[in-house]
Specification:
2 copies of one chain form a homodimer. Chain A is an alpha/beta fold. Chain A contains 15 helices and 17 strands.
């Protein structure tokens, strides 16, 4: 079954809002195993809406429209669809009552314009709007389906989940099952080379998605019954795990490096603290971003100046004088100081030159030392990151967490 | 001039990401007075890319593609455009060198795949990629223009601003001059009401763009000569400033609340420190994100647990026992403690319930106290923010900085 999403609204073409409706619907359709080959956006213009509808109905089984159901004159989706399918618009009494009640509930007055929203193409199945005034509808004609949804995301999502999704699920009969494998610190082309043959299996399909310092490999298969998916996905996942080793750090669509590290610490009853210089709190914030961080974290230090490093973390001023703040010696001393001060099991420190200024030949922009301390001592690792100030800082945070992850794995192994 | 945006990527059709590239480009084109009538999204499929390109070139003067420039086999934008326009792909030595240097800089190894990215359709004008490996290009043929941009937003935006925007501006024969006025803490509809008449001037145009807690008003005018713009923009800007008062905090496309506060502190030779609970370092990080933060900032504290608040900031355990950590008393004590510990001129503190768990009837999710201390004492302000954990944290950070801004303005006035 092929579906196309046709979004209608000049505000999308002006760039005032992103087309999050198309994203939301696509994600949900992919879960149902319904293929989406096109998203189209047109403005509030009868001719272009009609053209787009015609094209969409030629190449797809289902067309889902979003937007253009408001009470104003330039809202013309229903009118255009009805005209194109040669269906008259009929007053839907139940919708009119709902609209009246809703407007009265807000203390408003029903205007002529609102009446327009209660008209529905003949023979359409009405989808009531529980979050707004404009009802949606589903029209089946000549073996094709057109579903009309409102544009405001909250109204659209509520109507989609409660009414359109169950309709489509019944219609499709297949499900897409996916696994998301997160790989750290290996470039996209290197991963592609290592997994080359697995891209050509056909079933399951394998795709890569990149972000700073990491790549997600998505394994997907279409099945009649979700229970049949494991037998197909398990051996390929095992193969990817074997080839990627410890670089593969987590599985699951919502997994991230901070979440993974937080879970690892929690499972072992361990706590961590941080001492940050150039990342200025970004490392701590990446953990606190997750609800439940308090189980593994209670304090952290941002020590930007040399003075702060000595005063707050007890870094020996001699180290700062002899080696400078951006040095393995200072990173190590910061981590040890943060651990002692917080009585945590582990501490991570970051000190570096995030740029764009402050670099020298000897210590260029992007040079970062990451320190780690546990009850056996402290160590520092050198990194050179490329990119903007923000990228250097993000890379530093992710690599620091990865270092902690590898240290915990290593401790487990002993 | 009519432009169409053709975005290529199966990840868009799967709903993994929203098509923010199309939004970004549309917004910028609208600033140039270039009309956009269609956005189209297709997957990584030769046939559908070709079809979409054909349709787009029939109805538009300029087609801008985004995505499909990666090193992997399913990245096929350049190949398909070149084939459709009957242009051979030629190795572009300069791009190859750039790719080699970039990959080496990361300590990586150039793979066969990366080579592919250095091939460009014959006669195309290359747009180097300063944030990634894939170059873009502009092709003019038979009176039409095809511009090819990478998909990752950072790479796309950088290339668009530095290379495609100036090209389009030149093509249109006029220059767009814009001013960006940043307004904090006033709702969009309230701003709209206050500036109602200014939206109908025609010249200059006025548009509002909203983000968390703030709105940017963009004033724009198209002129043959940039020097003529001031006479048109100055009086309208003055009128907006008069109507918005101190809510208008800065002018300039790259201005932000953290930048504004940093500049204000720097100009007065003052320093600030922070004590964060639910924001966990995000406030400090928002300042350290800016190069030159060391002039106004040298240390900061993340105190997530009650114990940390007492131990690190000296918050009286009696306050925590009687009023709890999320209380004006605690916020005030945290700010005073952070200021004393750091010997800064100002200190800000944030303590609240970011959610999604931890709320009660008395202290609901979104309740945040922001404390501020200067040499005269400490005060706390109560806020109730709506939205997700992330939104509550971002709102807290922005409001804390705004509070410092207003305090500094107030001190100036005395």
């Amino acid at each position: 079954m092929i579906c196309e999403i046709l979004s209608i609204g000049t505000e999308l073409l002006m760039g005032q809002v992103a087309n999050t409706d198309a994203q939301y619907i696509s994600r949900r359709l992919s879960a149902l195993g319904i293929s989406v080959y096109h998203h189209t956006v047109v403005g509030d213009n009868v001719l272009r809406v009609k053209d787009a509808l015609e094209t969409a109905l030629l190449r797809s089984d289902i067309v889902i429209t979003t937007g253009g159901l408001g009470p104003t004159e330039d809202d013309l989706t229903k009118e255009t669809v009805a005209e194109y399918l040669s269906l008259p618009l009929i007053l839907h009494e139940e919708s009119l009552l709902r609209i009246k009640n809703r407007i009265r509930g807000f203390g408003g007055v029903l205007t002529e314009n609102n009446l327009k929203q209660a008209y529905i193409p003949e023979s359409a199945c009405v989808m009531p709007n529980e979050c707004g005034t404009a009802p949606g509808c589903i029209i089946e004609k000549d073996g094709k389906t057109v579903a009309i949804l409102p544009g405001p995301p909250r109204e659209m999502q509520d109507m989609f989940e409660k009414q359109l999704f169950p309709y489509l699920e019944k219609k499709s009969g297949e499900t897409l099952v996916s696994r998301y494998l997160h790989i750290f610190g290996v470039g996209e082309s290197m991963i592609e080379t290592k997994l080359k043959d697995l891209f050509h299996l056909g079933t399951p399909t394998l795709a890569l998605y990149c972000s700073t310092c990491e790549t997600t490999a998505r394994l997907s298969v279409m099945v009649k019954d979700a229970k049949d998916a494991n037998a197909i996905l398990d051996p390929v996942e095992a193969e990817i795990r074997a080839r990627m080793g410890t670089a593969l750090y987590a599985e699951g669509i919502n997994e991230t490096m901070p979440r993974t590290v937080l879970k690892m610490l929690k499972a072992r009853g361990k706590r961590v603290s941080f001492a940050e210089s150039c990342t200025g709190g970004m490392l701590a914030s990446s953990l606190v971003d997750i609800s439940g961080a308090s189980d593994v974290f209670d304090m952290s230090f941002v020590t930007y100046s040399n003075e702060a490093k000595s005063k707050i973390l007890g870094v020996d001023p001699g180290i700062l004088k002899s080696f400078g703040a951006v040095s393995p010696e200072c990173a190590r001393a910061m981590a040890i100081g943060a651990r002692e001060k917080s009585v945590a099991d582990y501490a991570l420190s970051i000190t570096g030159i995030a740029g764009p200024d402050g670099g020298t030949d000897e210590k260029p922009v992007g040079l970062v030392y990451i320190g780690i301390a546990d009850r056996e001592g402290g160590w520092a690792h050198k990194f050179i990151f490329k990119g903007s100030r923000e990228q250097v800082r993000i890379s530093s945070v992710k690599h620091a967490l990865n270092l902690l992850r590898l240290t915990i794995l290593n401790t487990d192994g002993r």
